[in-house]
Design brief:
Length: 197
Amino acid sequence: MKQSDRAAATRQAILTAAREVFTHAGFSDANIADVVSGAGASVGSLYHHFGGKADLYLALFEDYETRQEQRATAAVAAARVSGELSPMELFVVGARAYLRGCWEERELARLFLAGGGPAGSELLGRKRFHEWARLNERLLGSYEEPGGPSNDALVLVLTTVVAEAGHEVAVCDDEEKAMDLAEDVLTLIGRMAKVPV
């Protein structure tokens, strides 16, 4: 195995172990020794790849957010290939994939929602929210209607609604309840988009 392959495998093993430790203990009570033990790695390798507990938490967050973005982007791309052109319908397709991801990775979603992460984690969360809003702005750019809300306001409201729905989906007790809630929110978004105020 090449050095770069070993390094990537070690990094992934540490992330996998950190996910397990952080989701069970929370950030403040998580023990680096447990992460290292679970990864079968050394403390030195953890600090080499991540610099410490805070950087490890932030790396988990970035990986989770990247997967969520990939889910939504893939769903939108597939809908476009199937012939869907409506920006609002494409938004709903992407939002559905995002909400599904909130359920599938609910342990991580709950960890990040609980707060109590390291210094800088809230700022990183806001940054990622604004990046997501910019993606939605590009997607919904042609949706703005004369006399309707500005595209900026529409994007802010829709992105916030889906983010909050993701929080609620992640804390649901069972999948059916979570997906029913997700579909209800998406139905309301569709209605909001069609009803002039």
